[in-house]
Description:
Blueprint: H1 5-24, H2 36-42, H3 44-48, H4 50-53, E1 81-82, E2 91-98, H5 104-113, E3 118-121, H6 123-126, H7 130-138, E4 142-145, H8 158-176, E5 182-183, H9 192-200, E6 205-207, E7 211-213, E8 219-221, E9 233-237, H10 246-259, E10 263-264
Parallel strand pairs: 1-6, 2-3, 2-9, 2-10, 3-4, 5-6, 7-9
Antiparallel strand pairs: 7-8
Amino acid sequence: MRSAPGARALAATALASALLAGCAGPPDPRGGPGGHAARSAKNPTHTSQPYRHWGLTDPLPAPPSPPARRPARPAGTPLPVVHRVPTRDKVVFLTYDDGAEKDPRFVDMVRELRLPVSMFLTDSVVGPGYGHFARLRAVGASIQNHTLDHAALRGLPYAGQRAEICGQQSKLRARFGVRPRLFRPPYGTYDTTTLRAAAHCGVTAVVLWRAAVEGDGELTYAKGPRRLRAGDIISVPSSEPTGLSLRERTTRLLREIQGRGLTVGRLEDYV
Length: 271
């Protein structure tokens, strides 16, 4: 017996609905039905407020426009050695040493918070992990020189100091296609021979620090007031963690920076 036209139409509608429901399938990781929108609804913090995802209660203020030009160094004068930057801009500068800790989530943190960090790398510490720092560079980090082997330079002969500094310049150029302008001597120790060797290797400034982050996240100060001030350069050693991870130390540091009414600037714009 043939079905009535109305019944056939109802059956076709029901079949179409069933097919559409079946085609929906599992969430599409690329953002299809139930994919990105569903994840955003469940975790709006990570997408619309990434600062909360990284343990901050407020977003970092955008830094002011950097100086139009860096201070010029007269020809024949020694390399400048900077602990802090003389500026009225309410910025401090985050620098990370060595390159031992290679947490991929730190790359996510730098990208999502748009942190202008400077990575001072030692070849013998980074080892086979340069790919991690290529990813950091791709999200805005700068790569700078911290010697080949992390030797204390002060007192070494010129040839040895030049080998440590120029050797790492060549390594970083081979890896990243750029020769760093900035150099940090291991342990913060140097002498006039260091400055002469660094200048020969193409360095334009030796960067030390006024504040440093310890393994427990506490700040220590090399000189001056025991609080962060505009222009401070902060050293965050990147050694294998024995206390807080690099991300956790950075979160604590960012909270302190915000509490002082400051934000993070790009060191290479000022030095």
